[in-house]
Write a structure and sequence with these properties.
8 strands; alpha+beta
Length: 174
């Protein structure tokens, strides 16, 4: 799928194992920036390779990348919610990260819309995101895409001596 936005041509495609390094670098930017993920330690390319493998087959819980030219500019994944509990198999957690050089160019929105549009084919009825309550950019993105605040876990995260909470945002899939 190709989308056009302010940054030029964006191609959304399934991630491959060869994308693991770029996916790790993008995620680690969020780790280093703090308050964009609850992870405090960087991940390795090998970690992300295993993670991509865990998302296969992609017919149920894919990982997509947004490619601008030859560069991976961002990624989005759908992960099983409480795997093995059959009543929850139609729900998935969405995660998304964009390279710092490509933020505010519509990449996250392109990835989000791609994931939402894929839900019927994937058999998903509910999408939700779990994010730090101080991540206002992510809250705004989710709300623009029809997500609503479903819950708040106050004070559950401690990052560099600062306490913050987790928000749960969700929406019914189309």
């Amino acid at each position: 799928m190709d989308k056009t936005n302010d940054s030029g041509r964006v191609r959304v495609r399934l991630a491959t194992l060869e994308d693991a390094g770029a996916i790790a670098r993008i995620y680690n930017q969020a780790v280093e920036a703090r308050f964009q993920t609850a992870a405090l330690e960087p991940v390795t390319e090998a970690d992300r390779r295993r993670w991509i493998e865990d998302h296969h087959p992609p017919q149920t819980h894919p990982v997509w990348v947004a490619q601008v030219g030859q560069e991976v500019a961002g990624w989005c994944s759908l992960s099983a919610y409480r795997p093995g509990r059959q009543a929850l198999q139609h729900s998935a957690e969405i995660s998304y990260y964009v390279h710092q050089d490509h933020r505010r160019k519509g990449i996250a929105s392109t990835l989000m819309q791609h994931a939402i549009n894929a839900c019927p084919e994937l058999g998903l009825k509910v999408l939700f995101a779990v994010l730090l309550d101080v991540n206002t950019a992510s809250v705004a993105l989710l709300e623009r895409h029809g997500f609503e605040k479903w819950g708040h876990l106050p004070g559950v995260a401690l990052i560099d001596g600062v306490t913050c909470g987790h928000l749960i945002y969700g929406r019914n899939a189309p």
